[in-house]
Structure formats: structure tokens, C-alpha cells
Amino acid sequence: MSFRGSGANAWFSWVTSQVCSGSYGSQRIETQMWRSSWSGPRGYDIWRKTKSTTKSFIDYGWSVDCNDGGGTYTYYPVMKGFATGVGSSPTTRADNELRKNCGTKAP
Predict the structure, then answer these.
(1) Distance (Å, rounded) from C-alpha 72 to C-alpha 81?
(2) How far apart are alpha carbons 15 and 48 in whole angstroms?
(3) Which of 13, 16, 28, 30 stands 20 to 30 A from 82 (CA)?
(4) What's the confidence (pLDDT) of residue 12?
(5) Nearest 5°: phi and psi at 23?
(6) What does the buried/exposed string (b/e) look like for 28-65 if buried means 16 or more CB atoms within 10 Å of the residue's CB?
(7) How far apart are alpha carbons 107 and 103 in whole angstroms?
(8) Distance from CA of residue 74 to its chain's centroid?
(9) Which residues touch 96 (CB under 8 Å, ≥6 apart)?
(10) What is the secondary structure of the chain as a DSSP string?
(11) pTM of the entire structure?
């Protein structure tokens, strides 16, 4: 995950990847930016998803704007993988996080 731009033109950028093998049918990824709060993690933007594909490897880039000046929180992306005939993975958070002044909700 990275933070690009500055001020009102700033945004978060991240990549999700998933590999399937064996008999899985099709697969897709869902992702969302989360942020810290006193009561635990909260979604910063909406859940987004890739189209389903029968390819064995998905590598997809995402971004969400920073709501500049809305308060400082810790932000990190999470993802969940889905495969037909297999089900879903646990929700996995990124290894890195960023402390930024982007508020509680995406613009």
C-alpha cells in the first residue's frame, strides 16, 4: 500500500493478488480500505470486487481518495478471496499501514 499526492489530491493505492490451483471453477477478490477507531476497525470506503475469472492468478490494483483534513487515523487495506466450489478465504489485512489525516469516510 502507498499514499500518493498531497492535500485534496491525495489517495491510497494498493494491489491484491490471489492464486488458485486444482478444481476451483472461477475466482474473484473483494477488497476494502479499513481505518482505526476507538472501538475497532471500520470500513473507510465500500467493498469492491473483481469480475470472476477462470484464470488461476489474479493481480489487481485499487485506489481510494483521501478525505483531506477529516482527522488522523491508521489506514490499511483488507482482502477476501472467493472461489466457486471452494468458498471464501478469511479476511486478510495488509502487512503495512499508514497514519494519515484522511477522516472517517472516503470522499
Answers:
(1) 29
(2) 12
(3) 13
(4) 98
(5) -100, 95
(6) bbbbbbbbbeeeeeeebbeeeebeeeeeeebebebebe
(7) 9
(8) 14
(9) 1, 76
(10) -EEES-GGG-EEEEEEEEE--SS---EEEEEEEEE--TTS-EESS--EEPPPB-SSEEEEEEEEE--TTS-EEEEEEEEEEEETTTEEPPPEE-S--EEEE--SS--
(11) 0.91
Q: Cell numbers 489506514 correspond to what residue?
A: 75
Q: Name which of 7, 20, 12, 22 is nearest 77 in CA terms.
A: 12
Q: How far apart are CA 45 and CA 6, in angstroms?
A: 19
Cell of 13: 493505492
Rounded Cα–Cα distance for residues 33 and 43 (Å): 6
